[in-house]
Amino acid sequence: MQLNITTDYAIRILLALADRDGEVVSSKDISMIMKIPQKYVLKITRSLVAAELIERRSGVYGGFLLAKKPEEISLLEIVKVMEPTMRVNRCLEKDNYCSREATENCPIRKFHINFQNILEDRFSAVTVKTLLDNK
Q1: Chain CA centroid to CA 68, Å
Q2: In total, how many domains does the chain have?
Q3: For residues 51 and 7, what is the distance between their CA atoms, to the nearest angstrom?
Q4: pTM, entire model
Q5: Largest CA distance in the chain
Q6: For residue 71, what are the domain limits?
Q7: Backbone angles phi, psi at 120, to 5 degrees
């Protein structure tokens, strides 16, 4: 499993905003601080605003700021916004697809479920504040 670069950028954007502690930060500043193309910052921030992780302020001194406290935003929440799926295997998707039609008694699926739970627990345990405190 590999996260998209867009997800990495989203995490970096939230980290940049958390580092500014409630200050409105322009897309240009985020771009320069986190080395993300400004066009990409604007694209990603649309998704983050829609997910209510950040707020957008318009005007001459406009920009972005966190909509929640850094300790309230987990990596899991960010990943779920940015990734089309976070499931480690197709059989874990909502439709439980299995080419063998064996989802109820498949030992491989049981492994995937356990692994998925561990992965989500780890992503849930790490917040934007955790990352900020570890810089």
Answers
A1: 14
A2: 1
A3: 14
A4: 0.88
A5: 60
A6: 5-133
A7: -65, -35
